[in-house]
Protein 1
Amino acid sequence: MKSIVTSLLLLTTLSVFGDDRTVGTSPWGPDDEIGRLNLMTNKSRTEILSRIVDGTTYDLSVEYFIGMPSWQAAGDPHYRIWMTHTPHGTVVDDPLNLGKPMNEHVSYTGAAVSMYTHMGTHIDALNHFGLDGKIWNGFSAEDYAGDRGWQKAGAENIPPIIARGILIDVAAGKSLEMLPDGYRITREDLKKTLRKQRTKLLEGDVVLIRTGRMQSYEDAAAYMADSPGLGLDAARFLVEDGGAMIVGADNLSLEAFPSELETDYVPVHTYLLAQQGTPILELVNLEELSRDQVYEFAFIGGSLKFRGADAAPIRPIAIPVR
Amino acid sequence: MKSIVTSLLLLTTLSVFGDDRTVGTSPWGPDDEIGRLNLMTNKSRTEILSRIVDGTTYDLSVEYFIGMPSWQAAGDPHYRIWMTHTPHGTVVDDPLNLGKPMNEHVSYTGAAVSMYTHMGTHIDALNHFGLDGKIWNGFSAEDYAGDRGWQKAGAENIPPIIARGILIDVAAGKSLEMLPDGYRITREDLKKTLRKQRTKLLEGDVVLIRTGRMQSYEDAAAYMADSPGLGLDAARFLVEDGGAMIVGADNLSLEAFPSELETDYVPVHTYLLAQQGTPILELVNLEELSRDQVYEFAFIGGSLKFRGADAAPIRPIAIPVR
Amino acid sequence: MKSIVTSLLLLTTLSVFGDDRTVGTSPWGPDDEIGRLNLMTNKSRTEILSRIVDGTTYDLSVEYFIGMPSWQAAGDPHYRIWMTHTPHGTVVDDPLNLGKPMNEHVSYTGAAVSMYTHMGTHIDALNHFGLDGKIWNGFSAEDYAGDRGWQKAGAENIPPIIARGILIDVAAGKSLEMLPDGYRITREDLKKTLRKQRTKLLEGDVVLIRTGRMQSYEDAAAYMADSPGLGLDAARFLVEDGGAMIVGADNLSLEAFPSELETDYVPVHTYLLAQQGTPILELVNLEELSRDQVYEFAFIGGSLKFRGADAAPIRPIAIPVR
Amino acid sequence: MKSIVTSLLLLTTLSVFGDDRTVGTSPWGPDDEIGRLNLMTNKSRTEILSRIVDGTTYDLSVEYFIGMPSWQAAGDPHYRIWMTHTPHGTVVDDPLNLGKPMNEHVSYTGAAVSMYTHMGTHIDALNHFGLDGKIWNGFSAEDYAGDRGWQKAGAENIPPIIARGILIDVAAGKSLEMLPDGYRITREDLKKTLRKQRTKLLEGDVVLIRTGRMQSYEDAAAYMADSPGLGLDAARFLVEDGGAMIVGADNLSLEAFPSELETDYVPVHTYLLAQQGTPILELVNLEELSRDQVYEFAFIGGSLKFRGADAAPIRPIAIPVR
C-alpha cells in the first residue's frame, strides 16, 4: 500500500491554482448538469455528419474480460462475468420447471457481469470528482449524493455524442511507439503534435490524446504501471485555448501521477470535471486511428444511462471525414 | 413459481417447424460467429450515412436503475448500483492514505454495478440460445462453453452497427397506444403496418417493432406482465421475406408467450439466433420515433464488448434520413 | 411500491416513547461497541456449558438458496450463488494454463456468493439502526460511517456466543401452528407462554421467540407476507424485566408492522439496538426445538466477522441442558 | 500469469498414487454426501462436551475485509462489502418513501457482501475437487453439477460440528515462529510434534495444523506468497493412521505447492476430499491456541448452509477440555 500511496504523492507544486480552488459555475444556468456537452447542438452535429463520405469505421473501445486492466488501489471491484445459465447446467437445474427433454433441446446461455464504473472504455460524469463537497455547478454531496448515486450530474444525463473528433497522437508526434513510463504531457507537446499533424482544435471537439499505452492492454499489469498521462497545463490548453468539449486518452486515468499539486491528488480530473464541466474519456483505443493517421473524424457514441452514476461504459466509433 | 412456469407452457402447436429443428449453418463459412451481421459492409454503411441531412438524433436506450424491469423467472441478478466511494465516506475511510484534509478537499465519488446481461437496451449474441447443445453455425457447448462464457459467438465479436433502421409501429398501425397484453404479432400485422407507413424492408435492415409497451418502463411490474410480442411466423417474414439483419422491439423478450411450439419454449429466439444467425435487440425505446413518425433512419450503435457473453448493453441512436 | 410503503406506515401511536427518544449510553463505558453482549463472561459460559449432559444438538439455521426469503422493499441484493469453476468449464477455459488432460483429470468446482447481510439466520450488530445520526453509545455516522461500513460496533466485534438460550414458543402457547398474519406479540403473550412452559428468564439469556412462520421458509412470498412479530412493549419486557442479552425470532424482521410509533418505522429495532444495546437474531429456525418442547438450552454460535458490517450470518446450535 | 502457473507445476513425482487414482466409494452407503463427518455421533459429541470444565473460548476465525487474503490465480471474486443504506444516503434517496424527517430520525445502515466461497475461515465440501468428472462416492458432474452448484455433497449437508479438536503445532514443534516459505510438512514432522506435545490422535478428530502463517494475515501479499503447507504423505498419516474426520490448517490452501504429482496439481485436496471423504478447514486462526499451548479441545462450529456450494464460511471456537 505504501508504494501506491507514494506514487500518488505530490512532487512539485504549481502556482497555477492555489488552495482557493473551487468548483465552476455553469454558464448554462443553475440547473446545468452536463457542462460543456451543452456545446453540442443540432447544427454542430449536422456539420460533422455532413462531412462523412465513406462508411469506414474505427471501433474505439476495448474488450471486457476477467483479468482486464482496472484501478485497484482503492479496493474497487474487478470486472467479473459469470454464467447464470448454461446448456448443461440448465439440464441439471431445470430452473424454469420445463423438464429434461425441453432443456436438452433448447440450449440456454445467460451471463451476468459486475464492474467498477470506470472500467473499459468509459466516460466520467461531472459528479466523479468535486472540491470541498461540491461538484460542477455547485451541487453538494450533502443535498444530492445518496446510496444509489447522485441526483445531479449522473451518467443518465449524458446525451448521445456526435461531434468532431480530433486525435492528438503525442507518441507519434515524438516519433515514439509509446510515451515513456510516467511521462507527463505538456502544453508544448500538444501544440507541436497538432502542428505536425496539421490539425486545428475547434470549440466543441472531442479531443483524444494518444500515449500509445493501449498496446499493453492485454497485459493488465504492464498497462497499469506508471502510465504516461496528461499534465495540468496541457489540460488547460485543451479547454481554454482549444475549446474541447470532452477530453480523452488511451490510458486508464488520463492524467500523469504523481500530482503536480500538493493539495489535490487528481488535479487534472478536478480541473476538467469540477471546474470546467468537461467530461473525460478513458481507455479509448486509438491504435488504428494512429496507424492510418486519421486525425479528424466524426466521433459517435452513446454511454450507458446508469442513473446517478459517476461514469458509464461507452463504445464509440470514429468515421473519417473529408 | 407455478404461474410463471405455466405462462411459458405451450398452448398450441404450429406445424411450421417440427421436432427436427436444428441450428443453421452459416453461408459465411465455418468460422462465422456473427451471422447476418455479415450483411453490413462499407458500402451499406456509406449508403445510409450519405442520406443523413440533419443532426437530429433519437436516443433509443433506456435508463438503468434499481427497480428497473428485468426477467426474474430464472433467478438472474437484478440491476444494482452501489457506491464504492463517496465524498463523506472517503473522509472516514481514507482508502488511499491521503489524510483527512486531502479527502475533505478532493470529493471522490465512485460506483459499481452488477446486472444480468439482458437488462436495459441490449443485443443478444448468437450464443444466447441454441438447439441440442449447439449454437448458430454448429459450435457446441461441449467444446466452447466455459465458466466465463463462450469461446465462440460472444458479444465481443459484434461490430459497431451502422445500418438502415426501420421502425414498424404495429401499435400505431392498429391505431392503438399499446398492443393488448399477450398480443402475438402476426405476419399480416407487419405487412399492413409497413403499407400504412409506406415503408419497405431491404436486406440488411435493423428492424424495430413497436408494441408501445415502453410507455410502462418506469413501472417494472406493469412492463413485465404478459407483454405483447412477436409471433414465429412474423419473425420468419422479417428475415426470410424482409431480409432483416437484426430484429428488435421495445419489449423485454421480443416474442410473445406462451410459445407456439410444444418442444421449444422460446421458438422466436431459437429461430432468429440459432437458425438464422440474426441478433436480437430488446428494450429499445421507440416512443419518440413513433411520436414523430420517423420510420426510416440511420441506426448507429456499439454494444459493449463483454468477452464470451451472450448479450451486451447498447445505447443506439437513430438519425432520420432523406 | 405503494403497497409496500403503506405497510410500513404507522396506524396508531403509542405514548411509550415520545419524540425525544435518543440512543443509549453504555454502562460499560464510552468505548463499548457490543452493549449487552458484555453480560457474557467466563462464569456465565461455564455455568451453561456445565449443564450439558448429552450431545443432542439442534441446528437453528436455515439454508441459503436462490429464491430464499429476503427483504426487498429497499432494493437490496438477493442471495445469489454462481459457479466460477466447474469440472467441464475448466476443461474449456483452462484458467490456470494446466492443459486439457490435467483439467479433465482434476475436476475443480468453485462458487461465489453475494447477499445482503440480513439474509438467512443472522445477527444484527448495534450499528444497524440508530437515532438522529447516532448509534448505540453515541457514535455518530458523521465520524464513523464510511463506504466500507462503520468503524464502530461492526459485526467483527461480536464475540462467539455461548449463553443460556430460552425458547418462548408463543405460537404453541396459544395452541396455534403459526401466529396469524400481522399478529403483534404482547408482553402478556410472553408472560403467559413462559408460565405455560414453566420457564424463567435470567439476565444474559439469548431469548428466541417462535411465531411458527419458519414453516413457510421454502415459499419466500408466503414467508415474507405480513409476518407476525414482536410488539414494542413485549420487547421492553424481554430486556427490562427479563434481562435478555440477545432477542431473536424465527421471522425475518423480528418486529410486527406497521409501526406503533408515528415517528419511527422500526421502533423495536431502534429500541433494542440503539437504546438498549441488544443485538437481534432473525430467521432462527425454532421448529425442532418446538417439536421436542426444548425451552432451555445452551446456545452456541459464532457470526462471521465482516469488518464494519451491520449484520452477519450465523449458524447457531442449541444443546439441551439438565 | 506465467509465474503463478509455474508455481503450480510439478517438480517431482511420488509413486504413492499412480495415474489410476479414482474417487472413493463411501463405506456409509451410496447416498452418502458427507464422508467422514459420519464419524460424528451423539456419543462422540457427548464425550467431548462432558470434558469441558471452563467457559474459556478461543475464536478460531479471521475477519473479512476489503484487501483480505484470497486466492486470485483463477480470477475469483475478492471479498467486497458495500453500503446499500447509510444514515445520510437514506435521507437523500428516501428508498422507502418515508420522508426526510423520518429518515433523519431513524438512522438506517445496511450492507451487502460478495465473495468467493473459499475466503476467510471456511470448510471445503466434498464436491470442491473430484477426479475424472466425479466427486466423493461417485457422483458425477454430468448428472449433478448445475449452474447453482451441486445437487450432491453441497455445503448445506455439512452438520454442525462438535468434536474433539487437536492442534498440531508444527511450527512450535520445530521451535520456529513460522515454517519457512514453501515448506512441505512431512509425516515425520507430524509424528514428532505430536510426541513433543504429548497428544494422540483419535478417530473422529478435527485435526488442525499450525504453520504460523496466520501471523501475516493482515498483509495479504505476505500471507499468500509461497505458503508452507501439508505434504501428501502427511495427509495420509492424518487420515489413515490418525483417523482424522476433518483436516485443517492456518494457511489458505492447506497443502504445499508445487504438487508432488505430475498428474494432479492439488493432490492433497483430491486425496482428502475425493478419495477419503474428508472435509478441509482453511484459514483457521490457531495463534492463541499455540500461545497458550492448548492442544486438545472441544471444536464447535457451524458452517453456513449455502445450498449446492463447494465450501462455506465458518466461525468455529475451541474450548479446552480436561
Protein 2
Amino acid sequence: MNPILIALICGVLGLVVASFMAAYVLKQDQGSEKIREISAAIKEGALAFLGREYKILGIFVIAVAIILGVLPALGWRVSMAFVFGAICSGLAGYIGMSIAIRTNGRTAAAVQKSLNQGLRVSFRSGAVMGMCVVGIGIIGLSILYFIFHSDPNFIFIIPGFGVGASSVAIFARVGGGIYTKAADTGADIVGKVEKGIPEDDPRNAAVIADFVGDNVGDVAGMGADLFESYVDSIIATMTLGMIATFSISLDKSLVPDMATAWFLPMMVAAGGIIASIIGIFLVRVGEKPEMGALLNALRRGTFSSSVLTAGFAFLAVYFLKADIGIFWAILVGLIAGVLIGESANYFTSYAYKPTLNIAESSQTGGATLITRGFANGLMSTIPPIVLVVIAIMVAYHFADIYGVAIAGIGMLSTLGIQDATDAYGPVADNAGGIVEMSDLPPEIRERTDALDSLGNTTAATGKGFAIGAAGLTALALLLSYTQAVGIDVSQFNLLDPRVISGIFLGAMLPAVFCAMTLNAVGKTSFSIINEVRRQFREIKGLMEGTAKPEYGKCVAICTSAAIKQMLAPGLITILSPVIVGFLLGPLALAGFLTGAITTGFILAVTFANAGGSWDNAKKWIETGAYGGKGSDAHKAAVIGDTVGDPMKDTSGPSLNIMIKLMSIIALVLAPVLAGFPGLI
Amino acid sequence: MNPILIALICGVLGLVVASFMAAYVLKQDQGSEKIREISAAIKEGALAFLGREYKILGIFVIAVAIILGVLPALGWRVSMAFVFGAICSGLAGYIGMSIAIRTNGRTAAAVQKSLNQGLRVSFRSGAVMGMCVVGIGIIGLSILYFIFHSDPNFIFIIPGFGVGASSVAIFARVGGGIYTKAADTGADIVGKVEKGIPEDDPRNAAVIADFVGDNVGDVAGMGADLFESYVDSIIATMTLGMIATFSISLDKSLVPDMATAWFLPMMVAAGGIIASIIGIFLVRVGEKPEMGALLNALRRGTFSSSVLTAGFAFLAVYFLKADIGIFWAILVGLIAGVLIGESANYFTSYAYKPTLNIAESSQTGGATLITRGFANGLMSTIPPIVLVVIAIMVAYHFADIYGVAIAGIGMLSTLGIQDATDAYGPVADNAGGIVEMSDLPPEIRERTDALDSLGNTTAATGKGFAIGAAGLTALALLLSYTQAVGIDVSQFNLLDPRVISGIFLGAMLPAVFCAMTLNAVGKTSFSIINEVRRQFREIKGLMEGTAKPEYGKCVAICTSAAIKQMLAPGLITILSPVIVGFLLGPLALAGFLTGAITTGFILAVTFANAGGSWDNAKKWIETGAYGGKGSDAHKAAVIGDTVGDPMKDTSGPSLNIMIKLMSIIALVLAPVLAGFPGLI
C-alpha cells in the first residue's frame, strides 16, 4: 500500500476521533438559563470576530494568490497550494473554536456534578481541536501529494501550502492575541486594580469581551498557529529530503529517492496521530479532585504518546529502509521537545524557586518584581538553547542536515495530544468565568480554578515545546532555502557584507514585531479601560449591581481594534523577506533569516517565560503569601501579570509563526531569487 | 617623522589639556562647610570602593597574566601587553573619578555664582576624563609599537592590550553599575515612593551611597568602558590591516604594508584628539541660563569636532598615500555615529512623541507604562541597525572588510569630546544632590536641574553612539579573528552544525548576561531598601529631621554586594569564548561571536532607550503633566524609571563591552585555536 494512503487513513481516523469527541461534548447539559445566556453572548462575539477576520484574510489570500499565479517562476500550482493551505488553517481554527464556545457553558454545568466530569468535557473539547489540527494537516498534505506528485516542480509547490497556512496563522495569532489581551488587561486594570472587584465580576463591562478573547485568541489563534507548526515541519523535511536526492553538497545515502523523502516524514507524523489518539484516551482521573491527580492524568497521556511515537518512528524508518541514523535524529528531537517543555514549567510554575523569588520581590513593589521577572525570562533561555544545540549536533551527527529537519518533526509528532491539553485550558478558564458570573456556590468556582490552574501549567509546557519546534523548523526551512536557491557553500560566509547586513536586519525584525504587537495591545486596552471607566461613571447602579453594563460596547471596540492592528505586523512579516530578497539578493536573505531565527527564538522564550512567571507569582500571592489578595504585594504582582500578558500571549507566540513564515516565504521565492544579484 | 611619534605627541597633548582642566577645577572654591562635609563622605566612599575593586582586579589580572605567559602559543609578550592594557584602563577610570569626586562640591559652589560657571566647572571635569581616556589610549598603543614592532608575532601581541583594557572595563562597568543602580533604586523606592520625601533628601540613608554610585559607576565605570571602546576599535583595524598585508582572501591594495596598517588608524585617532581639544574649547555659553543655549554650546563643540576629524582623516589618508576609499569608509562611520546618537535622542527625549506617548500611558497605571516603554525600546533598534547596515555596505564597497573596521574608528574618533559631555553629567547630577542636601535656595537647585537635564540628553546621545561603535568594533574583531585563526571562507557557512550551534549559543549569552546583572541590581537594592526602611523605623527623629541616618551602612552594603556580584557576569563573559573555542572548535566560536554581537546589539539598544524614555517620561510628568509630582501618573512613571535604571545603566552599557571583550579574546586565542578541531 502507498504509505501516503496510510497517512491519509490516519488523518481521517484523527477526524473521526474529533467527531466522536465533539458529539460527546455537544450531548452534555447546557446548564442553567443564566449560563446559557452568557454562553450565547460569548458565541455571538466570537463568531462575529472570526467572521470579520476571515473576510479580511479572504481578500488577502485572493490578492496573494493572484500575485503568485502571475509570477512566471511560480505559477498557478503554487497559488493553488497556497489557497488550499490558507483554507485548511482557517478551517482547523474555526472547527476548534466552534466546539470551544459550545463547551464553555457545558463545562460550567458539568463541573457542578464533579470535577472529573468537568475535566472530561473540557479536555474532550480540546481534543477536538488537537485532532482537527493534525487530521486536516495530514489529509491536506496527502491530497497535495496525490494531485501534484508527478509534477516536475513539485518541490516548489508544496511550500506554497505552508505559506498559506502560516499567513493565516500569523494574522489569526496576532489578531486574536490583541483581542484577548486588550480585553483581559483592560478588565483587570479597572476591575481588579481600580475598583477592587473580583476577576470575571459581572459588573465589569469588559468581562464578556475577555471571554470572547479567550476563544478567538487562545483557541482559534492557537489552532492556526499549531496547524502551521505542524505542516511547516513536515514540509521542511520533505523539501530538504527531496533536495538531498539531487543536491551535490548533501549526503544522498540518507534519503535514497523522492518517494522516501515524502513517505518518511508523513509516516512519522501519522504514527504520532495514532499515538496521540491512544494518549487522549488514557487521560482520565478518579473522582477525588486532587490537583496532582489531574496533572498526572494529563502527563500520563502525553508521556505515553511520546513513547508510542518513538516506537512508530522506528517502525517507519525500518519499513521504509531508511538510515537508522534518522531514527536517532527523530528521537533526539522528541526528547529535546519534552525537556524544553519541562524547563518552561520550571521557570514559570510556583512550585519552583524562580517564580517564588519573583513573588518575594513583590514586597518591594512593582518595579523590583518587573525586573526580577524579566531577568527570569532572559535566564530561562539557557535550557531551550542548550537543548536545541544538542539536538542539532546529535541530529547532524546521525543524519546530516536532514536530521535537523526530521528532529523538528520528532518534536512535533505528538502535537495531537499536546494541542488537546493546550486548547482545554481556555475552555476551563471560560467555564470558571461563567461560574463566577452565574452566582454559583464558591466550591464550584474552586473546581474550575483547579482545572484552570492545571491549564496554566500545560500551557507553559506547550509554549516551550512550540518554541523549540519553531526554532528547528525555521532552521530546516532556512537550510532548504539555501539549497533551493542554489547558494554556494563558499558564498554564505561572514566575510560577505550582504550576509552580515542581512543578519543585522534579520535580528532587528523580531524586536520591531514585538514592539508593534505590544503597542497594539497597549492602545486597545487603553480604549477598553476608558470605556469600562466611563460605564462605571455613567451607568447608575452598576457598582451596586442593580444595573447591567453594556458588554457589547467592549466587544465592538476589541473586534475593530484587533482586526485593524493585526494588519501591520502581519504584513511586515510577509513583506520583509520579499523586500530583503529582491533588494539585497538571496545571500542577504539567508543572513536575514539567520538573524531573525536566533533573535526571534531568544525573544520568544524570554517573553513566554517572563509572562508565565509573573502570572504564577501573582497566583502564588493569591494563595495567601505576602499578605494575599488585596495586599500591596498583590498589587505589585498584578502589575507584573498585566505587563506579562501581551508578552506571553500576543507577541511571544506570534514570533514562532513569524520566523517560520519568513523562512517558508524565502523557500517559495527561491526559484524567483535564484541567480538574482539584488537591486542594490 | 614617524607617524606614531606624531600620534604619541597628540596623546601627550591630550594629557596636557587634561592637566590644565584639572588645575582649573581644583582651583575653584570648595563651597560651604556643609558642602565640604558631604563631598568628603562621597570621596571616602568612592575611593574605598575603587580600592577594593582594583584589589580584586589586580588578583585577576595577575592570574590571567600567568596563564597567558605560560601558554606556549602566546607567551610573556602577550601577557605583558595584557597587564599594560589593564593598568592603562584602570588608570583612565581612576584619574577621571578622582577629579569628578573633587568637582561635585565645587560645582555646587560654582552654580551659586552663575549657571555658566556651573557648566564650566562641571564640563571641565568631564573634559579631564575625556582627554585622559584618549590620551592614555594613544600613548599606550604607541609605547607598545615602539617596544614590539619588530617582533614577528607583533600582530598577536597587540590584542593582548585590548583584552587587558576590556577585562578591567567589564568588571568596572558591571561593578559600578550594580553599585549605582542598587543605591539609586533603593533610595527612590523607600524615599520617593514609600515616604514621599524628595530625591536626595538628607533623611534618606541611601543618599550618600547614591552619590558614590554616580561616581564609581557613571564616571569610573564609564571611563574604563570608553577606554576599551577606543583602543579596541584601533586594535581591530590595525590587526585587520596587518592581516590584509599577508592574507590571500583580502584585498592587499588598500593597505600596502604593515607600517600603513599601523599608521593609518593611529593618525585618524590622533586627528580626533586634536579635533576634540578644539571642540572642548568651543563649549561656552553666555550668562543667560537657557536650556537651549546650554545644549547648543555642547552641540557646537561636538559638531565642530566631527567636521575637523573628517578633515584630519582626509589628510592622514592623503599623506600616508592610502586608498581614498578608506576616507569614505571613515566618513560613513563618523556620520552614522552622529545619526545613531541623534536617533537615541529622538526615542528618549520628552521633546518627541515616543516618550510623550509613554508619559500619556501613565494615566492607566504602571503596567501600561512599562509595556509602552519596552515597546519603544524595541522599536528604537530600527535606526541604529539600519545605519550600521548602511555603514557596513558603504564601507565594504569602498574599502572591503578593512573599511568596516576603520568605519568603527571614524565613529569613535571624536571620543575625547563625547566622553567629556558624558562624564560631565554625573558631576552635575551629584552637584544637584549636594545642593539639595545643603539646604540651598530652590533657584540654585533649578540651575543644577538644568545642568542635570542637559546631561541626560547628552548621555542618551552618547549611549547610542557607544553602541553603534561597539557593534562595528566587535564585527571588525570577529573578522580579524576569522582571518587570524585561518578559517577557510568555504567552511564558515550555515550548513555546518558547529556554526549554527555557535550562533544559537552566542545569541543566548547576552540574554543570560542581562539576567545576571539585572538580578544583581535587584538583590542589592532589596538589601538597601530593607536597610533604609529599618533606619526609618529604628532611628527616632529621623523622619522629623532631628536625627541623622547612618549613611555608611548603605555605602558598605553597596560596596560589598557590587564587588561580589560583578564577578559572575564578568567571568562568564571571559570564559565563554574560551570554553566554546576549545570545546566546539574555532568555527563554532566564529558563529558564537556572530550570535552574541547581533543579540547583544539589539538588547543594548533596547535596554538603553527603554530606560532613557522611562526616565524622561517621569521627568515630563514632573514638569506638571498628568497631575505632576505625587499624582498617580507620577507613581506609575516612577515604577517605569526604576525598572529602566538597571537596564540603561548596568546591563545595557555592559553589553557593549561584553561583545567586544569576547571578540578580542577570540582574536588573542587565534594562534592557540588555529587548526584545533574542538574537543567534542
